[in-house]
Write a structure and sequence with these properties.
- Required for the assembly of the mitochondrial membrane respiratory chain NADH dehydrogenase (Complex I). Involved in mid-late stages of complex I assembly.
- This is FAD-dependent oxidoreductase domain-containing protein 1.
- GO terms for molecular function: oxidoreductase activity.
- It is a single chain.
- The protein has about 450 residues and is of the alpha/beta class.
- The strands form three sheets. Strands 10-9-8-2-1-11-18-17 form an eight-stranded mixed β-sheet, sandwiched between helices.
- It has eleven helices and 18 strands.
- It binds flavin-adenine dinucleotide (FAD).
- Flavin-adenine dinucleotide binds near residues 100, 256 and 404.
C-alpha cells in the first residue's frame, strides 16, 4: 500500500505546478505601500489622528508559495535554505508563522552577530557495557573527518585529575570543532538574515488547514485517500479573526507541537495499523537544566562531560559556575503540562551521579534552574524529515528530541532541496522519512544524551 501511495506522490512536475499559486498582484507590495498611502491621505485631510485606512501590515499575505509553521531554529533554517537555493531572487515566497511572542522575533537592527561560541571538547564516558559501541561510534566519526580521540581510564585520569574514573572503561574526547553557543543569538541571526532575503514573518497561530482529497487504489488493490492542503488559517493575536493564506507547500516545523499540527491536517486519523492511521509520534517532554556554583570545582579547561549514567555538565562562564542535568527515565517523565522545575529531581537523580564522577561536586550550591520542552519523537528519538506520503504537500522538519539545534543547518538544507528539486541532493536523509513509523523501521542512535 505504501509503495503505491509513494509512487503517486512522486509524479514528475507535481511540485513545480504546486509552487505557482499566485493569481494577479502581490499582497506584499500592497502591504508595503499602506503607510505611504496613509501619509498622503492624512496630509490633505483635516484631523491628524484620523486613521483613514485599517493597517493590515501585521496580517500575513493572502497567498504564498510556502507556509512554515513554527519560527524556531528548524523553521528558520528551512526558510533560509529555500531562499538561498532559489534559482532567481524573489522566485519563491516564504511565510513563517510563529505564535510565540518572545522578543527575538522583533529584533531588526542588531549589532553584528556574536554567537558567544565557546570552543571546548565533548568528553563522553562509557562503561564496560557501552565501550564497544563508543569505539564503533568514534570510528564512524573519524571516517567522516572528525578529530576525536579515545582515552583509557589512565589517560583520562592524567588529563583530567579531578575525575573519578571508577566504572569508566573508555572515554572519547573531541579535539577540535566542538563547543557550545548561545541559541538565542543564533535565532536572532537567522531571523535577521532571512528577513533580508525576503521571507515574511507573521505572529499568529495556525489553527486549520483546508484541503482537498482524491482517492487512489494501490497496486495491492487497497484504497487510500490523498490530501492536498490549499489554505492555512492563521489566527491573529488578541483577535477571533483568522487570515486564510493560500499556499502550495506547508512545512511542519512546530517542534514539540508538530504532532498536533499533523493531527490538524488529518494525519493519523484512520484505522490503526494503516498508513492513514499512523500518527506523527512527536510530543512535548519536559527537561530541566540546573545551574550550580562550586568554588572547588574543575577549572577553565573543563570539557562538556557526558557521564555513562546519563548526567552531563559543563562550565558556565568564568566564576566556577556549572550547568547540567540528566534525562529522566520513561517512568520518571514529568508532567509536560507546565514548565515548573522539580528541584528534588536534581537532589535525587542528578547530584549523586555528578558527585560520584567529580568528588568536588559533593559541595555545590544550586543557584537557578529552568525547564524546556524536547520535541520528543516517542518512536525512535530521531528527526522526521520530508513529505508525508498521504498529505502530499506537508513536509516535516521536526522531532529531533534534544538535538535539533546542532542538526538544524543540515536539515533546513535537505528539506529546501526536497521542496525545490524533488529529491535530496547534498545529504541523503531518506532514513528519516515519515514512512518508517508505518513500516516499523527505527533509526536508533546510541551513546547520545
Ligand atoms: C533543556 C534542553 C537542552 C537542549 N540541548 C540541546 C543541545 O545541546 N543541542 C541541540 O542540538 N539541541 C538541544 N536541545 C533541543 C533543541 O533546542 C530543539 O531540538 C530545537 O530547538 C527544536 O527546534 P524547532 O525549531 O524544531 O522547535 P521550536 O524551537 O520549539 O520551534 C517550534 C515553534 O513552533 C511554534 N508553534 C507551535 N505550534 C504553532 C502553531 N499552531 N502556529 C504557529 N506556531 C506554532 C512554537 O511556538 C515554537 O516557537 C535542547 C532542548 C532542551 C529543552
Amino acid at each position: 500500500m505504501l509503495r503505491g501511495a509513494l509512487r503517486f506522490r512522486a509524479k514528475p512536475g507535481l511540485l513545480g505546478r504546486g509552487l505557482n499559486t499566485r493569481k494577479g498582484g502581490s499582497t506584499l507590495d500592497w502591504a508595503g505601500k499602506v503607510p505611504e498611502i496613509k501619509k498622503k491621505i492624512q496630509s490633505f485631510l483635516p484631523g491628524g489622528d484620523w486613521n483613514p485606512l485599517y493597517d493590515t501590515s501585521h496580517l500575513p499575505p493572502e497567498r504564498t508559495d510556502v507556509v512554515i509553521v513554527g519560527g524556531g531554529v528548524l523553521g528558520l533554517s528551512v526558510a533560509y535554505w529555500l531562499k538561498r537555493l532559489e534559482k532567481q531572487r524573489g522566485a519563491i515566497q516564504v511565510l513563517v508563522v510563529e505564535r510565540d511572542h518572545t522578543d527575538y522575533l522583533a529584533v531588526v537592527d542588531n549589532p553584528p552577530l556574536d554567537l558567544q561560541f565557546n570552543p571546548s571538547g565533548y568528553l563522553l564516558l562509557a562503561s564496560e557495557k557501552s565501550a564497544a559501541m563508543m569505539e564503533n561510534n568514534v570510528k564512524v566519526q573519524r571516517q567522516e573527518g572528525a578529530k576525536v580521540c579515545l582515552m583509557s581510564p589512565e589517560q583520562l585520569q592524567n588529563k583530567f585529575p579531578w575525575i573519578n574514573t571508577e566504572g569508566v572503561a573508555l572515554a572519547s574526547y573531541g579535539l577540535e570543532g566542538e563547543g557550545w553557543f548561545d541559541p538565542w543569538c543564533l535565532l536572532q541571526g537567522l531571523q535577521r538574515k532571512i528577513q533580508s532575503m525576503g521571507v515574511v514573518f507573521c505572529r499568529g497561530e495556525v489553527t486549520r488547514f483546508v484541503s482537498s482529497s482524491s482517492h487512489m487504489e494501490t497496486m495491492s488493490g487497497e484504497e487510500v485517500t490523498l490530501k492536498r492542503i490549499h489554505e492555512v488559517h492563521v489566527k491573529m493575536d488578541h483577535s477571533l479573526e483568522y487570515q486564510p493564506v493560500e499556499c502550495a507547500i506547508v512545512i511542519n516545523a512546530a517542534g514539540a507541537w508538530s504532532g498536533q499540527i499533523a493531527e490538524l491536517a488529518g494525519i493519523g486519523r484512520g484505522p490503526p495499523g494503516t498508513l492513514q492511521g499512523t500518527k506523527l509520534p512527536v510530543e512535548p517532554r519536559k527537561r530541566y537544566v540546573y545551574l550550580w556554583h562550586c568554588p572547588q570545582g574543575p577549572g577553565l579547561e573543563t570539557p562538556l562531560v557526558a557521564d555513562s549514567s546519563g548526567a552531563y555538565f559543563r562550565r558556565e562562564g568564568l566564576g566556577n559556575n556549572y550547568l547540567g542535568g540528566c534525562s529522566p527515565t520513561e517512568e520518571e517523565e514529568p508532567d509536560p503540562g507546565n514548565l515548573e522545575v522539580d528541584h528534588d529531581f536534581f537532589q535525587d537523580k542528578v547530584w549523586p551521579h555528578l558527585a560520584q564522577r567529580v568528588p568536588a561536586f559533593e559541595n555545590l550550591k544550586v543557584r537557578s534552574a529552568w525547564a524546556g520542552y524536547y520535541d520528543y519523537n516517542t518512536f525512535d528519538q530521531n528527526g522526521v524529515v520530508g513529505p508525508h506520503p498521504l498529505v502530499v504537500n506537508m513536509y516535516f522538519a521536526t522531532g529531533f528530541s534534544g538535538h535539533g539545534l546542532q542538526q538544524a543547518p543540515a536539515v533546513g538544507r535537505a528539506v529546501a532541496e526536497l521542496v525545490l528539486e524533488g529529491h535530496f541532493q547534498t545529504i541523503n536523509l531518506s532514513s528519516f522519512l515519515f514512512s518508517r513509523f508505518y513500516l516499523g523501521e527505527k533509526v536508533k542512535e546510541h551513546n547520545i544524551f
